[in-house]
Write a structure and sequence with these properties.
Blueprint lengths: L24 H4 L8 H13 L5 E2 L3 H8 L3 H13 L3 E4 L2 E4 L24 H9 L5
Antiparallel strand pairs: 1-3, 2-3
Length: about 130
């Protein structure tokens, strides 16, 4: 058995005055494999800024600036979290949802751009906002 000890006892984490957490089931249920990095960046941002009920009302423009995402990438990340049943959204309000207790959230298809297919930005945004794949 490995004996654990703090490597930097002067920097032990403590519960901050503001409320935030990440659920271990994100790792145990292998959820991190089910979405792309911008999606998890959005999730981390929302978990960090949300209140105790998981609520946040940061604007899309502000979130996009903080995460260096464009509007299409932000909308795609938000849709992945909604399809994974990890997020509820009704503009301007976001709610980070509790992970289901009894089962893993549904699979989320990670979409990657196809360089051989040219599509207009409006077609891509429409598909993302309607919950479709790119």
């Amino acid at each position: 058995m490995i004996h654990k000890h703090p490597l930097r006892p002067d920097r032990l984490r403590q519960i901050p005055p503001s409320f935030s957490w990440l659920d271990h089931r994100l790792v145990r249920h292998q959820l991190l494999r089910r979405a792309d990095p911008p999606t998890w960046a959005l999730y981390l941002f929302l978990v960090t800024v949300a209140d105790v009920q998981g609520l946040s009302f940061y604007s899309d423009a502000s979130i996009a600036r903080h995460l260096s995402l464009d509007a299409v990438a932000l909308a795609a990340a938000r849709q992945q979290l909604i399809r994974a049943d990890l997020l509820a959204y009704q503009k301007p309000l976001y709610q980070v949802l509790a992970l289901p207790e009894d089962k893993k959230p549904p699979e989320v298809a990670v979409t990657t751009p196809r360089s051989a297919q040219a599509r207009s930005a409006s077609d891509i945004l429409r598909a993302v906002l309607q919950g479709g794949a790119l």
